[in-house]
């Protein structure tokens, strides 16, 4: 599944408009007895929401609605998760996204589970997928983090959805791709396939190209030249796209 290999689905609804759909799940991360990674429910909500928001914004869509399936009681866990989701929506610049929320009201839960889906709209001609070109450089904004590393960082030095909202209109940026569990190399190779090129990894790159980035703690972008004015996050060159040989 996935539109052109991306973690989104695109549906043409006519009149030059497309629906873009993304989803993410999070299990066993929270403050309950059987959770494997201890984290405040607010952070769980924020990080899960940011993943789906980043996927939509990266391809040029504006989020309009979100479904939130909370496998825990309405309060306090549900309320805290929703607080984190609303905080991320505020950071993303989309505070008015409508929420459809469901919580577990019948049974006591001993482990946290959360599923979030988001739907956005985009003019079909404005979809930003497969825009990269041969000789584009591939950069990583932020660093891959996983599990306890994310929680320990306090979300202070990881990419959030508002960052991608600011990146998208930059005139020198072609494609943006959030990095998830597949790691930087796999996502860079996807960008290359979409543009009919080959990814050539940079020698001596400071980042582990195979490491999972968990809830999309960093993003890749392609550009013909280096860019310096992207907030306070460090930019790492990870490679370039080269023409396929005949």
Helix content: 25-40%
The ordered string of helix (H) and strand (E) elements is: EEEEHEHEEEHHEHEEE
User: Can you count the beta strands?
Assistant: 12
Strand order of the largest sheet: 1-2-7-5-6
Tally the helices. 5
Q: Sketch the major β-sheet.
A: 5 strands, mixed
Radius of gyration over alpha carbons? 18 Å
Average pLDDT confidence is 90
Spans of at least 5 consecutive residues whose pLDDT stays below 50 are: none
Distance between the termini: 30 Å
Seen as an oligomer or otherwise, the chain set is single chain
Estimated structural class = alpha+beta
| Gross geometry | globular
Strand content: 25-35%
Features:
246 residues, alpha+beta, 5-stranded mixed β-sheet
Quick overview of this protein structure:
This protein is α+β, with helices and mostly antiparallel strands and 246 residues long.
